[in-house]
Amino acid sequence: MKRFLLAEHKIPYAKTHLTFSLPDSLHVERLAPAPIAPAADATRAVIDALNHPLGGFHFDDFARTKSVVIAINDKTRPVPLHILLPPLLQRLAQIGIPDRAITLMIGVGTHAPMPREEFGAVVPAEILARYRVVSHDCDDTSLNIFLGKTKRGTRVLCHREYADADLRIALGDIEPHQFMGFSGGVKSAAVGVTARETIAQNHALMMEPNAHQGRYDDNPARQDCEEIGKIIGVHCALNSVIDEHKQIVGVFAGDPVAVMRAGTPLALDVYRVNVAARFDLMIVSAGGHPKDINVYQAQKAVGHTTPVMKRGATIIWVAACPEGAGSKVYEEYVAQFSSHEAVIANFKSAPFQLGKHKAFQIARDATQVRLLMVTDLSPELARKLLLPRVESLDAALAIAQRDLPRDAPVGIMPVGNVTVPVLRDV
């Protein structure tokens, strides 16, 4: 019987899109962020948030302060700094803080420190020319100072300059995170400008039962992150919620916990998608650049997808990964094994280690579904990482459809790194 094709679908890939078609007999569902109207004037939305800070924070309390450090995200995050930073810097000037007292600190977490020649990828040129900008390095012990321990035992070692500043601000986006529950709030500082030891101890909590996307109050990883932020003493967060087109739909400023309580419901309104049943096939993109900049970042799309897949179903993972694995520790660790089952067994038998956890996350999902990856990774690197690379999206679809029921439920998730699909009966 002849199978008619639907109109072409489109899914993000690097800085462009891939197109594909599906038979019209399939039940196709697009799992995408809600089409909530973006702010009519994004800059005005930032100014309004700064003029009405939440949770008892007041900029005037820091008038003419001697030092301000603003933790910002690195190139792997699509934070609209070109919109958030100018009004914030103007607000600081209004309370008598000179440019020379302000430092922007790129919170790379455990990513490689950003070299100065790359600062322009995240900081607008006019700001880069006017303000001091530095990159954190989680492995430089001379930079980090011990501040205390959280209730869960995480040793808090923070960049000394950030910890010593008179006013400590964190910038970022509020969006779902696969085990932290949400990004945003103190996270740009609590993870961005702390030592590897601190980040590793916090991230080890991903193994706890409630460490899932979209959970906040009872999420151990997130609540440990909040406590790290309190020990550091983050005074203010400035966070945006963006849509799948990276447009701002909401802005929140003030006390970091108050910002999270105000912003997380909007983030869920944007990114949570209810689904009626599990899928036989999902075509998922991390969301294009920068979310598919490397495997380390793009993995989140698979982690968000697997919970709504049937056992043994197929996930076609669309992620360019122009910067490769994204972690030498991850790359060298997974290269020791010939199967995902071996990765899982080894990871569970040893103490938690950052980088290795990425191999475990991929292996955990790859043992539940059939994973096919459409990527720019070389065949050699893909094999090393135990990733089943397919030459093209059309080739992956041909493989997936060989044994796909004629009326199978199929999902298309264009922004998998932040979309939260939820089964309606759960």
Written account of the structure:
With 426 residues, the chain is an alpha/beta fold. It folds into 2 domains: 9-30 and 276-423, Alpha-Beta Complex (2-enoyl-CoA Hydratase, Chain A, domain 1), CATH 3.90.226; 42-270, Rossmann fold (3-Layer(aba) Sandwich). 30% of the residues lie in helices and 24% in strands.
CATH level 1 name of the largest domain: Alpha Beta
CATH topology of the largest domain: Rossmann fold
Question: Gap between N and C termini, in Å?
Answer: 38 Å
Name the CATH superfamily classification of the largest domain.
LarA, N-terminal domain
Number of strands: 20
CATH architecture of the largest domain: 3-Layer(aba) Sandwich
* Helix run count: 14
Instruction: Kindly estimate the percentage of residues that lie in beta strands according to DSSP.
Output: 15-25%
Helix content: 25-40%
- The domain tally reads 2
- Catalogue the unreliable spans: none
Q: What is the radius of gyration computed over CA atoms, rounded to a whole number of angstroms? A: 22 Å
Oligomeric state? single chain
Structural class: alpha/beta
Q: Can you give the mean pLDDT?
A: 94
Q: How does the major sheet shape up?
A: 6 strands, parallel
